[in-house]
Each structure stands twice: as structure tokens, then as C-alpha cells.
Amino acid sequence: MITFLNLKKVNAQYENELKEAAARVIDSGWYILGQEVKEFEQEFADYCGVKHCIGVSNGLDALKLILKAYGYGPGDEIIVPSNTYIASILAISEVGATPILVEPNFNTYNINPSQIEKFITKNTKAILVVHLYGRSVDIDTIQKIADRYHLKVIEDSAQAQGAIYKGRKTGSLGDAAGFSFYPGKNLGALGDAGAVTTNDSKLANDIYTLRNYGSHKKYENIYKGYNHRLDEMQAAFLRVKLKYLDKENQVRREIAKEYLTSINNPLITLPSVSKHMLENVWHVFVIRTAERDRLQSYLTNQDIQTVIHYPKPPHLQEAYKEMNSKKYPISEQMHKELLSLPLSPVQSKVDTKKIIEVVNHFR
Ligand SMILES: *Cc1c(COP(=O)(O)O)cnc(C)c1O
To answer: Which of 36, 64, 170, 352 could form a disulfide with 236 if both were Cys (CB 3.0 to 4.6 A apart)?
Structure first.
């Protein structure tokens, strides 16, 4: 069986270093908000090219903390793509603001900048962009719209650690960004973890405080905060894995390039290739076909595991009953036609070749 993503194999590459990192934390006797978190925050801020990184509990909490720190709540509207992973939208709901869904572009799978403006009202506060599947959004166009209406731009970078837009890394493109280091992401911890990156020092200070009970110094609470901290063990693991992120992203790009040049089945549409293609980090490689379910069974029968990102759009989820009757046709079509092929930093050339062959034989 060619597995979609073999995490055991991914982490086995760094087994010794990860064990040393764990031992260092165990021996330190200090497990929450210590040296490892501090070092990781500095290293990841440098990596993204921003002033501040705040380590937090996970990606959803990272986004929630940004929205909370900006003071958004009931009555505020936040623009978000209709085809994102539901966590981006949950973060908006969690602070009591209203998510305003905007359809993606069929070629990039990212929010369609030309659709944004007509959804802006006097209550709109921010555009929450999502670099879906590892590909940066067209930030220049979006920033122009945001400037015109005085909106914040917040990045959901959960799927795009290391992706680049015109020389700048995701996480440094907007006012603030939320990252997830869920084990399956390009930069994955060995448990839950996340971060906020920003150049806004006031925002950073507020998030340092909010993640730790709203306390800026011990037993002094200035906000009704949370416990959304990153722990020392995960920070120590992330410091090991950050060193190899660019190398792993390069392997992903090479596999994507193989797929793009060698898959030639007329039933299948490949991801569009833009001049920014080399800067995509291919969190997942998503193809499109009207025969999606049949293709997936065919691949399963040939021992190739695939995944659907995602089977049901957020507005049709039971959790969002209030949106169930709204129409997002592009998003709905994508959710019927998309299929993700295996792609990971530990996928062998032989496996990639076999996947291409089998996909090309599908009729
Ligand atoms: C994974 C993911 C999240 C949530 O991250 P968690 O760490 O699982 O909370 C948010 N947005 C997107 C686009 C994601 O892929």
C-alpha cells in the first residue's frame, strides 16, 4: 500500500535529534513557557521574516487569539474563503463575529480577490485569507482592497509553512498570521501546537498575555484570557523539525513537478501552474475530476491511498445550520471533484512513478 502520508517515517528521519530534544526537556525540570518556547519563537520569527512569533496551543487558537486581540466580536464581519478547512471559520465564530464566505478561484483554489469587494459592508473588519493546500494567496491584490477599506489582513498559514510570495514568506504577508503545527502539516509537531506571527508589537504583547490567562506578570491579570500556551516539549521538537523544513518542502516540490509533467489523463485537471509555482509548498497535491469517486476507488484497488480535502464544505455542515440554504456553487463543485494524491517528504521515486502510471491508466 502506498500510504497518503507516513508520519512515522517522516519523524524517523530525525529520531535521534527528537529523542535528544525530549531528553533535554525532561532533564530541564521546566515544562511550560521556558527556554525551548522562547528559542523556537525567535527561530520561527526569523524564518518567516517577522519581528514576533508567539507559540500557542494549536492553529485554531492562534487564529482565535489574533481575532480576540484585535477586539473583534458580535456585529463584526470577517471575510473568509468558502472552501477553507472549517477551523478558519470556527475561529471567527468563536469570538462571536460573523464569517462572510467568499468563493474561491477555480484555478488556484484560493479566495478570488475579484469577489471580495462586493461583500464589504460598514461592519467588515478584516479579510482572513487562507493559503490553501500550500499555495500563497494573491496578497498584493488583496492588500490593495484592504487598504482601500481600512481592513486588517489576517493569514491562515496552517497549510503553508515556508511558502513564498514574491520573495516574502507566508506569515509575513498580512497584519498577523496563524500557524498550525498539527503533526500532518508541512512543519508538524508530535502533538498539538501552533503560533502567531506578526510585526505588530502591540498585538504580539496582547497575545503573549491572552495565551497565558490574560496575565502579563505572575498573578496579575489584565485580560480575561485563556490557557493557549505552547509547551516546552513540542517547542523542542519543532526546533529540530524547523531545520529541515526547507529541505522537505523541496522534496515536495520535486514530487509535484513529476506529477505536473507526467500526469496526462484527459479526465483529470491538474493544479494550475503559475509563475509562483516554485514557491508553493504543496501541503497537498489536489487534482480535479468529474469521476472523483470512481477514481478514488480505482486507486484504492491499486493500493494507492488518497484523501479528499474536503468532502463537505463548511456552509453545508450541521454546525453551520444558518448557512445551509446559502449557495456557494464553486465551493460545492470543488468538494465533489477534488482528490489529493499521496505526496510527502518520504515518498520514494518508485512510488511516485507508480502513482503516475496508475492515474494515467484510469479510464
Ligand atoms: C489545520 C488547519 C487549521 C487548524 O489547526 P489546528 O492546529 O488543527 O487547530 C486551521 N486552518 C487550516 C487551513 C488548517 O489546515
So the answer is: 36
The vertex-134 CA angle with 253 and 356, nearest 5°, equals 45
Summarised one tens digit per residue, pLDDT across range 35-78 is 999 999 999 999 999 999 999 999 999 999 999 999 999 999 99
Please choose from 84, 90, 159 the residue to mutate so as to test ligand 1's pocket, defined by most ligand atoms within 8 A of CB.
159
Residue closest by Cα to atom 12 of ligand 1: 158
pTM more than 0.85: yes
Distances (CA, A) of 125 to 1, 8, 74, 90, 245: 47, 42, 11, 17, 33
Q: Cα separation of 125 and 127, whole Å?
A: 7
Nearest CA to ligand 1 atom 6: 59
- Ligand 1 shell residues, CB under 6 Å: 58-60, 84-85, 87-88, 130, 156, 158-159, 180, 182, 192, 194
Q: Helix (H, G, I), strand (E, B), or coil: what is residue 68? A: helix
